[in-house]
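Q: I'm building a small set of examples for a reading group on sequence design. Run inverse folding on the following structure and report the sequence directly after it, with nothing in between.
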């Protein structure tokens, strides 16, 4: 066999290439692994850093250094007695704390070896029950490090009977840093462990889940490596929430893509004796839908670049890098590892080659997905209405959703020293003390602005920044006012006061900044981002789906159902938030949830509808929906459970934003997986029929565009109507108007002994044997209803066309006494004649063909008969009947 050496060479080359590919990815993982510890070095969690430079609060923050010795976030130490509230026993003596400020400043200076940190003298409250000390750390000192140093001094340097909490901007920043500290370890551990359990249940194998998870971790290492480099170069911005989302997103997406590939790979192993051939076939069947999914998710994420918040805009490219890494490893590293290890990775359920396996996924009446598909097909309207009503009822919870933002003091769930300190500050001092609102005003308008602000409700006092104590500090013709509010700087009331200050002093050239103003600008910018990005995401994904599905109707249906499931998840999530005591939601929560749910959940509809379109090309839309649902139901459901579980892992991070996001996205993915993709989309597709593909259609006249159809001897597909009887699919034609060169490849699955009615002077049934390229031809005439059933193995294009033309000539003969009997098969060396234009359909008459699908009848081919010896009285042409 001359091709054997070439086959061996290809096998060797394939193994060498796979080994090199695996080593390359392992090298990337080895370099990227240590970069996990560097993410915190390039991350920032300060709100003002994420606002655009044009934001009013950002302008003020940038100018603070011109008026103050330190622009660092202040830490407020609040000292009370352990018996706070008891008359007499709750008084705090400031004199006993006279030396404490120097100790605090010295401790903070020792963190980075600076001398810039300062501390105010003890400031007693009016009721005498509390003392506050304001500490300004060096700008070089991280807030979390400064708070740790303060806690160490306060733990040992306080007089007996006193206790202290550290609050203020530095205190809340330290709480956030402590909450995010679990991302590198705990979050990854929980996510990986949960996914591993699910994969073991799905694969029922001890080895395959580990390989899929290894591929996911390689993808995560690659994503971290690239993103850390981009962050150091100043291309992207990373914070704690982006870091957590990146980890979860990469693990979930890479595992999903791995599930899709391994499912197809298992199918192909049953059709091929070689794992390399199965790998090639699995890649051919997987890369297009996975690439479409990847492109859709990335397109949706990149829409975040239009956000004015750097925290939102930063997520777009960072997460896109992660999705790209998941795609590349799932279709390069994972296939290479599986191909090298062979079938044994599926142990104990090792797939063996099955010669009876068909060219597509087997579809039977057995199994839960077959039963679901049958139920949807029987009553699509009832199911669509029922599921739609359930989703609409879930949307009713939206009326309880408050997504206007939450105070910084509520960002951390559970114990918070900063929140406890702020509560103590609110009880004994003006709530805004220590965290003033800054008003930058032209010197000429200082008096007018000062008097206007001082007379506003919600303002405790107005002070003027003075560098030398003799007069206001003037920089570039402007002065800085420090406004102490009566309400907590993190409260809605304080934000209302800031709005009033801006409204009353804007005409005088004043600009308002500070902690409260920064929170207010962040919320307003987030709300504005929603109105821009959500419509853009819908538009971009609709256009991509239109290109992928070659339809305008299908994308609208898929987007509408996905948006409905998003509304349901958001509504149910809002009810859950109320039940567990959440006061509201960050404005970015609906935006992030929408982007991820639409971009990720639409993936499963892409996987479903691309398979439906593939099946509809051969079997029609109605059958294509059922076959597509059965063939993809198990793997897509598993992928949905994996993705929902990975996002649910965010619940272990005690951050308000991430917990809410985890609840909404996990709910949305499960709703889309079990209701929308399983019932609603198939039901709507059944109801619309071929209109779902408008203005295109699943199949077209002419030669197939894919070259493998010609190589495997598939016939041209005509525009005909198929009959469905006794679970059979067939196409039948009038004898005097049949051009077999246009007979499509169909399957017949009638029970042994079942019958399929045919009509016309003679009829033709064509269907595959289920082997590799074999085709049955049953040629029937009025004289002899069933002459024979023959099998032709490995038919190529030229051979099939010649035989089809010869058979057409037989059927076009004036009688069964022609030179060549009906039912004969002709050799490939016979000439082919050109088909004529279609003629008008003729009225069929009843006849019956019995199909025994359990047996294959073989006989030698009939002797070749010259085409000229076959009488031709009419030109063959297609008649559509059905």
């Amino acid at each position: 066999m001359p091709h054997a050496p070439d086959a061996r060479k290809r096998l060797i080359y394939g193994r060498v290439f796979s080994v090199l590919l695996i080593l390359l990815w392992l090298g990337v993982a080895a370099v990227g692994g240590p970069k996990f510890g560097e993410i915190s070095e390039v991350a920032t969690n300060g709100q003002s850093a994420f606002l655009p430079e044009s934001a009013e609060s950002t302008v003020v923050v940038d100018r603070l250094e011109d008026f103050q010795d330190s622009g660092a976030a202040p830490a407020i130490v609040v000292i009370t007695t352990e018996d706070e509230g008891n008359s007499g026993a709750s008084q705090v003596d400031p004199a006993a704390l006279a030396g404490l400020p120097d100790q605090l400043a010295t401790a903070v200076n020792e963190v980075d070896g600076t001398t810039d940190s300062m501390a105010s003298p003890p400031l007693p409250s009016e009721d005498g029950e509390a003392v506050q000390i304001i500490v300004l750390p060096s700008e070089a000192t991280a807030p979390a490090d400064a708070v740790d140093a303060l806690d160490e001094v306060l733990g040992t340097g306080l007089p007996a009977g006193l206790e202290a909490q550290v609050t203020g901007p530095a205190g809340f920043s330290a709480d956030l840093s402590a909450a995010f500290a679990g991302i590198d370890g705990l979050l990854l551990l929980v996510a990986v462990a949960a996914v591993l359990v699910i994969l073991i249940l799905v694969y029922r194998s001890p080895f395959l889940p580990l390989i899929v998870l290894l591929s996911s971790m390689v993808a995560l290492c690659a994503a971290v490596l690239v993103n850390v480099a981009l962050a150091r170069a100043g291309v992207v911005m990373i914070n704690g929430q982006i870091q957590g989302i990146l980890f979860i997103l990469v693990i979930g997406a890479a595992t999903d893509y791995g599930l899709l590939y391994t499912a197809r790979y298992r199918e192909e192993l049953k059709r091929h004796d070689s794992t390399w051939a199965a790998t090639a076939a699995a890649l051919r069947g997987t890369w297009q839908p996975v690439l479409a999914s990847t492109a859709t998710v990335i397109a949706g994420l990149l829409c975040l670049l239009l956000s004015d918040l750097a925290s939102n805009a930063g997520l777009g490219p960072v997460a896109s890098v992660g999705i790209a890494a998941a795609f590349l490893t799932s279709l390069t590293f994972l296939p290479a590892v599986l191909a090298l290890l062979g079938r044994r990775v599926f142990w104990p359920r090792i797939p063996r080659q099955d010669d009876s396996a068909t060219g597509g996924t087997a579809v039977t009446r057995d199994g839960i997905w077959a039963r679901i598909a049958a139920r949807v097909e029987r009553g699509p309207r009832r199911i669509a209405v029922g599921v739609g009503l359930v989703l609409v009822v879930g949307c009713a919870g939206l009326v309880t959703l408050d997504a206007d933002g939450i105070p910084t003091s509520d960002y951390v769930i559970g114990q918070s020293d900063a929140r406890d300190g702020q509560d103590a500050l609110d009880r004994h001092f003006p709530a805004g003390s220590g965290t003033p609102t800054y008003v930058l005003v032209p010197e000429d308008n200082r008096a007018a602005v000062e008097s206007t602000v001082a007379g506003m409700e919600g303002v405790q006092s107005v002070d003027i920044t003075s560098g030398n104590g003799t007069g206001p500090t003037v920089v570039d013709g402007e002065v800085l006012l420090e406004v102490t509010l009566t309400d907590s700087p993190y409260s809605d009331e304080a934000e209302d006061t800031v709005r009033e200050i801006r409204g009353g002093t804007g005409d005088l050239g004043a600009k308002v900044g500070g902690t409260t103003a920064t929170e207010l600008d962040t919320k307003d910018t987030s709300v504005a981002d929603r109105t821009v990005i959500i419509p853009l995401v819908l538009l971009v994904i609709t256009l991509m789906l239109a290109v992928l599905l070659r339809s305008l109707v299908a994308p609208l249906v898929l987007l509408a159902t996905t948006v409905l499931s998003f509304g349901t998840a958001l509504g149910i999530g809002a009810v859950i938030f109320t039940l567990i005591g959440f006061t509201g939601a960050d404005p970015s929560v609906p935006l992030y949830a929408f982007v991820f749910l639409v971009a990720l959940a639409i993936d499963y509809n892409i996987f479903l509808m691309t398979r439906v379109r593939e099946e509809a090309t051969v079997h029609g839309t109605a059958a294509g929906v059922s076959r597509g649902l059965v063939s993809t139901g198990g793997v897509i459901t598993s992928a949905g459970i994996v993705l929902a579980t990975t996002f649910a892992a965010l619940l272990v991070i005690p951050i308000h934003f991430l917990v809410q996001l985890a609840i909404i996205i996990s709910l949305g993915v499960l709703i889309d997986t079990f209701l929308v993709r399983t019932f609603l989309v198939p039901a709507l597709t059944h109801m619309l029929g071929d209109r779902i593909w408008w203005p295109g259609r699943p199949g077209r006249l002419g030669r197939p565009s894919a070259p493998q159809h010609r190589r495997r001897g598939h016939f041209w597909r005509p525009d005909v109507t198929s009959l469905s009887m006794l679970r059979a699919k067939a196409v039948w034609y009038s004898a005097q108007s049949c051009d077999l060169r246009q007979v499509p490849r169909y399957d017949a699955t009638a029970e042994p002994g079942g019958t399929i009615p045919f009509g016309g002077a003679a009829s033709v049934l064509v269907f595959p044997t289920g082997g590799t390229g074999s085709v049955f031809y049953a040629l029937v005439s009025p004289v002899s209803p069933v002459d024979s059933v023959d099998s032709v193995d490995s038919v190529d294009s030229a051979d099939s066309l010649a035989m089809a033309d010869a058979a057409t000539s037989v059927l076009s003969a004036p009688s069964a006494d022609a030179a060549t009997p009906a039912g004969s098969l002709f050799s490939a060396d016979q000439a082919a004649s050109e088909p004529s234009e279609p003629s008008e359909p003729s009225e069929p008459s009843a006849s019956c063909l019995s199909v025994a699908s359990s047996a294959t009848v073989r006989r030698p081919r009939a002797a070749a008969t010259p085409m000229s010896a076959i009488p031709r009285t009419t030109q063959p042409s297609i008649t559509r009947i059905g």
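The longest strand covers residues 478-485.
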